[in-house]
């Protein structure tokens, strides 16, 4: 789906052909029903792909003509092109949209309601993790004599020691690092608008304090905690660090530290949870620290069994 400069979805031809009421309800779905920008983007892509398929492959010219067979055929086609979790998300987007159109009296029934997506059950996450020595190596190799180095070390440590999602970390303001009970705490703004506060590990506390003190941003409590570096100045700007820039930074830092594992923004959340559990932490406390609603989600980040598998593989001796 094509997004306008303001972030609102452009009206697809099939929706426009369904009348003014359908167009308004369609735009309201993305503006009012979907508040999370990442979800809005993912749903927009899913809906855009389906509507384009309807026009090009099924010859449908109005929303009221969409039938369960069309949804099922498109989902089957996508199953051959994409992984099961992706297809399930796209089907969920269609169900949500058509439910919205039904309640708005644009169409009589939801054509996606009876369509079943591919089966998928994950007991182990796919996010690559670092062992404790690699994570320590990465942090130690960062040159902390520059504003960029101080920022990068603090950001990576925050994700490791507080299990923070990169989105929550980058959304922090300077005032979200605060002192309570003579200890530094961090406040993370998680999905659904939930604020989650927790005390800092002593290593994270040292890195955050050094970052705030040596860059001078402590005097700007309402400003973003993690910022871009001004071009040609080497100093922090007042622009929040975008997630894509954080990913690029992590790739550079990993390469400079000689880390061979292909890592990403989410690696550090999984690394921290695995290290915590490996050192005697409980799954229930890990879930609370990660702000997971269920320990089943936390288990996807637990990679302790990787070591067991490797030990068993080495038993194959020829």
TrEMBL record:
Stretches assigned to the Core-binding (CB) domain: 17-102
GO molecular function, one term: DNA binding
Pfam family, one: Phage_integrase
Gene3D superfamilies linked: 1.10.150.130, Intergrase catalytic core
Keywords (A to Z) from UniProt: DNA integration, DNA recombination, DNA-binding
Protein name, UniProt field: Tyrosine-type recombinase/integrase
InterPro entries: CB, DNA_brk_join_enz, Integrase-like_cat_sf, Integrase_catalytic, Integrase_recombinase_N, Integrase_SAM-like_N, Tyrosine_recombinase_XerCD
CDD domains reported in the protein's UniProt record: INT_C_like_6
Bilayer-spanning residue ranges: none
Gene Ontology BP, a term: DNA integration
Family according to the record: Belongs to the 'phage' integrase family.
Residue span, Tyr recombinase domain: 125-315
């Amino acid at each position: 789906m094509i997004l306008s400069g303001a972030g609102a979805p452009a009206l697809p031809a099939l929706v426009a052909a369904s009348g003014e009421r359908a167009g308004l309800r369609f735009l309201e779905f993305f503006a009012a029903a979907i508040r999370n920008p990442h979800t809005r983007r993912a749903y927009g892509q899913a809906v855009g792909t389906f509507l384009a398929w309807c026009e090009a492959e099924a010859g449908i010219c109005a929303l009221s003509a969409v039938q369960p067979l069309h949804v099922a055929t498109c989902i089957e086609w996508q199953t051959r092109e994409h992984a099961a979790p992706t297809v399930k998300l796209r089907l969920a987007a269609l169900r949500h949209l058509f439910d919205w159109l039904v309640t708005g009296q644009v169409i009589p029934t939801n054509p996606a309601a009876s369509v079943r997506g591919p089966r998928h059950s994950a007991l182990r996450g796919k996010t690559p993790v670092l062992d404790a020595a690699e994570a320590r190596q990465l942090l130690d190799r960062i040159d902390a004599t520059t504003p960029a180095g101080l920022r990068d070390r603090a950001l990576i440590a925050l994700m490791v020691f507080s299990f923070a999602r990169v989105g929550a970390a980058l959304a922090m303001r300077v005032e979200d690092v605060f002192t309570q009970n003579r200890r530094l705490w961090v406040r993370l703004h998680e999905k659904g608008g939930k604020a989650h506060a927790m005390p800092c590990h002593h290593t994270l506390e040292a890195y955050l304090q050094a970052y705030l003190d040596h860059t001078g941003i402590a005097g700007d409590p309402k400003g973003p905690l993690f910022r871009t570096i001004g071009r040609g100045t080497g100093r922090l700007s007042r622009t929040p660090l975008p997630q894509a820039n954080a990913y690029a930074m992590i790739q550079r830092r990993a390469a400079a530290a000689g880390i061979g594992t292909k890592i990403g923004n989410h690696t550090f959340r999984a690394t921290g949870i695995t290290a915590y559990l490996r050192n005697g932490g409980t799954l229930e406390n890990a879930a609370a620290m990660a702000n997971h609603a269920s320990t089943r989600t936390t288990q996807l980040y637990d990679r302790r069994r990787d070591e067991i598998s490797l030990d068993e593989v080495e038993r194959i001796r020829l």
